[in-house]
Please model this.
Amino acid sequence: MLVFDNLVSQDLRKRLLDVVIAEDSESDHYDARNGPNPVRWVRGGLLDVPDPNDPPLVDENETIARSNIGGGWGLTDEGLEEICFEHHDAVQEMESILSNLFPDFVVSRLPEIILGCSITPMTANAPTAGDVFGYHIDADPNITPSSPWTDVYGRYPNRAAGKPRFMSCLIYLNDEWDGDKWGAPTRFVDVPTDEVNDLNVYDVKPCPGRCIIMDQDVGHTVVAPSAAAGKRPRYSLVWKLILHPKTVGQDMKHLAGGRTSLWPETEYFGSAAQNQ
Model:
């Protein structure tokens, strides 16, 4: 999990926010006073789970965490279609930044063939005070359904040498967000410890333009804003990415490619901290 504060300019952040909320003359009637615009957002829309008609992700005797079951505000189907498949200069600019960040890999969006058409390659969320979310993972190449993708790559642990690596990129978009007062961090959990407590979770505080890049098989959850935020939503935009190797048997664990000065300092928590 990488946290960047200088990867996204404030101008680009604002333009990405405009893409997500579809800035128009009605926008001033919502947000801080009245919550997300119900024309653009739907309560319970932040599910991001496979359609029941799609092939199962795992055998019936296995389990997989489902993203934010019963969650908060998510984009309407029309909104998702628009951010994913219509042209947006800001989206293309951000994708160029991600490609330049990982020059040793070929960076692409998650293709539909892996998890089905109900899992979009981009999504957005707008949690508000009182919402309840559960821990989940975005995806795991070790439990993908049978498809032409698994015919080629099989099932494998994420970060395996020479295999495509599943990663997500999340950007906090609000013009203003007081993380200390309004809360709403993205919370990560250390699964190997088999418990959730203060030592085994790690919170990334929202900050305008802050970017989190994480492996998709890392357990995490949205934390709802505090009551002090009122009806103010905490907007974020998420890309689901595949980092493809450029060479046979390529190391997929180390992303910096020797450019360590560009990368955040490593912090350990849970079982990782215990093993230091």
